Amino acid sequence: MNSFSVLGIIVSAISILAIETEAYTWPIPYQSVSNRPKNDPYCQAGLVPFCPTGKSVNSMPFVDPSDIVEVFALKKPVWSFKYGPLMGFFNIMHDGLGFRSKKTGLNYTMEWYELDQLFNCTFPHLLEDGNLKWCNQGALCVYDGINDTVWNQYGFIKKVSEVSGSQYNQFANWSLYDNNTAIYYETWSIYNNNNTDNSQVMFFDSFDCASWVLSFMQWVPNLMEMLSLIIQD
Question: DSSP string covering 45-73, please?
């Protein structure tokens, strides 16, 4: 079984704290790639494989441009299928988006999350040769239907908007591109101190399921305030 270590995080944190904040532009931008590399075979999901009921890679449901598509914010505790509401007590939550075509009545769920589950993305593995290996790829999982029971049992499904079929298709096309270029799941937001005044500097921002949900806002900007509140709920 793979073992992981916080050693790399501790070393990195010490290094970051030693940096002169004035010498750089912060935060460091998210590092995208030109094409998604194959996932390292060393990296394995533990509890359940990634996207077991999802559509094939690089496939996406599209709708008639004249359609009206309902948009739903989805939230539930991480690993609720195994631990029920437990993670919710620690505010460790998972976010997704649901879509429903008014013309066809078909529903779709879209979730961006870790290929190899949360702890593998959060902590590096300490190898026998002393090197560190990160298993921190994230990807989009798209599947038919919205499972009311799964999301409502310990979380919620909230309708947040309606968009045109054309808007939805633009978002779907962008999601395919984004899934092949924005591949890193980043659990941590790193700051230079715990202050809430102007002395606080963010070095690295997190990028997780909620970050991906908020990216929908570039297609429907008027949803920003509503979705932000729902994600922080």
Answer: -SSS-SSTTPPPTT------TT-EEEEEE
Is residue 143 within 8 Å of residue 108, measured between CB atoms?
A: yes
CA–CA gap between residue 7 and residue 52 (Å, rounded): 32
**Catalytic residue at 94?**
yes
Strands (E) located in the chain: 68-77, 93-101, 107-114, 125-126, 132-133, 138-144, 156-164, 190-191, 202-204
**What does each C-alpha distance from 83 to 87, 89, 92, 231 come to in angstroms?**
7, 11, 12, 21
H or E element at residue 211:
helix 209-214
Per-residue pLDDT tens digits for 15-68: 445 555 566 788 888 889 999 999 999 998 877 889 998 888 778 999 999 999
209 in active site: yes
pTM: 0.83
Separation CA 112–CA 210 (nearest Å): 8
Catalytic residue among 121, 135, 141, 209: 209
Find the catalytic residue in 43, 51, 94, 125: 94
